[in-house]
Amino acid sequence: MLKKIVTYVAAATILLLASACMNQTPNETNKPSNAPIELNISAALGLKEALLDIQKDYESNHPNVKLVYNLAAAGVLQSQIEQGAPADVFISAANNQVDALAKKNLVNPASRRSLVSNELVLIIPKNSPLEINGFQDLDKPGVIHYGLGEPQTVPAGQYGVEVLKKLGIWEKVQNKAVLAKDVRAILSYVETGDAEAGIVFSTVAATSDKVKIVATAPKDSHEPIVFPGVVLTNSKHPEAAQDFLDYLTSPEGMKVFKKYGFTEVQ
Q1: Beta carbons of 159 and 223 less than 8 angstroms apart
Q2: pTM here?
Q3: Within its chain, how far is the Cα of 238 from the centroid?
């Protein structure tokens, strides 16, 4: 009789333990209850320095949140999101990529924010012997190659083509363009002398002491440069994601952006 009682008790204990495990989510079994949630931020590479700076303050003031950045060309990030890559927030360097995701119902349209603006500039190596003073000079014989972002995936490249077409020289200089996967690659081409010039955002140019800005594209020569942010439909933490976007446009967030040369959207 005693043996049967012990058996019944053991069986009941096993059932209770099994039930408890079944009622827990994978995160609950593998993650401490006080661990911060992770927000996956897919952001344009041109925002790197500003976002890393913002991360310090934000995580310090929001200990329940850990920011995980995925930095790349906006078009590359768009493709990743379309293919199901996990992301809570997407920050592009142009509206096109966000618009494309919106058409596929992959973003929350009400969450969209125009974060900051920028300028498009022409850079050359700091010690360049060439007389390059404007975008029109890309047509000079001395310019063999210039760095340009791949227009289909790199917003700076998209804006660059618009400028060159507006100036009427795109057909003349198209074959000189060395297409790059992102703005940092263009900067590297110019720093090393692999390209006589490059077209990048002013904030990217400011990160290097090996190049100099020789011209700024007129504002009417390209679409307004806007870095939009949006919460994605498949976000696991939509409220925290929205809080982060709102922080970026707050006085605290804008202060950091301005520190790195970004301006408010007009």
Answers
A1: yes
A2: 0.84
A3: 18
With tokens 């263009």, the residue in question is 186
What string of pLDDT tens digits covers the 266 residues of the chain? 444 444 444 444 444 444 444 444 444 345 455 788 999 999 999 999 999 999 999 999 999 999 999 999 999 999 999 999 999 999 999 999 999 999 999 999 999 999 999 999 999 999 999 999 999 999 999 999 999 999 999 999 999 999 999 999 999 999 999 999 999 999 999 999 999 999 999 999 999 999 999 999 999 999 999 999 999 999 999 999 999 999 999 999 999 999 999 999 98
Tokens of 216: 């700024």
Candidate CATH numbers 3.40.50.720, 3.50.50.60, 3.40.190.10, 1.20.210.10; the one for domain 36-117+227-259 = 3.40.190.10
Q: Which fold has domain 120-221?
A: D-Maltodextrin-Binding Protein; domain 2 (3.40.190)
